[in-house]
Amino acid sequence: MKLKIMTLYVDDQEKALQFYTEKLGFQKKNDFGNGSYRWLTVSSPEDPNGPELHLELNGSPVASAYQQGLRAQGTPAAMFFVSDIEGEYDRLSKSGVRFTMPVTKTTGSRIAQLDDTCGNLIQLTQLEWG
């Protein structure tokens, strides 16, 4: 068994595509639709055939409530691992990404949290072991 797709609810798929590709550096993997439905995924250029992030419109009341609830309690909707968190923090800050938490030392890692402009908080994590 392996992880292939993780869904992240967004309030605007086009804005999410721009943010995740132009700001964070992911690459568009799939983008097709049927009527008003759009299947949109991105992947890491470091592992283009690896797991995909499905940018799903939060169009249902359940998806919207879930997304808003996570954000309201400050819980990240996704966690991305990086090898140089200070470098990523500087690069992303200079490109206009708004961080809601600066680089912070925690037990076994350093983390930072950013706003993806589409309704989510995203955590960047650099492990300090392994």
Automatic annotation (TrEMBL):
Domain spans labelled VOC: 2-127
Keyword Cell inner membrane carried by entry: no
Keyword match Magnesium: no
InterPro entries, per the entry: Glyas_Bleomycin-R_OHBP_Dase, Glyas_Fos-R_dOase_dom, VOC_core
Family annotation (CDD domains): VOC_like
Domain of life: Bacteria
Keywords linked to the UniProt accession: Dioxygenase, Oxidoreductase
Any GO molecular function: dioxygenase activity
Protein name: Glyoxalase/bleomycin resistance protein/dioxygenase
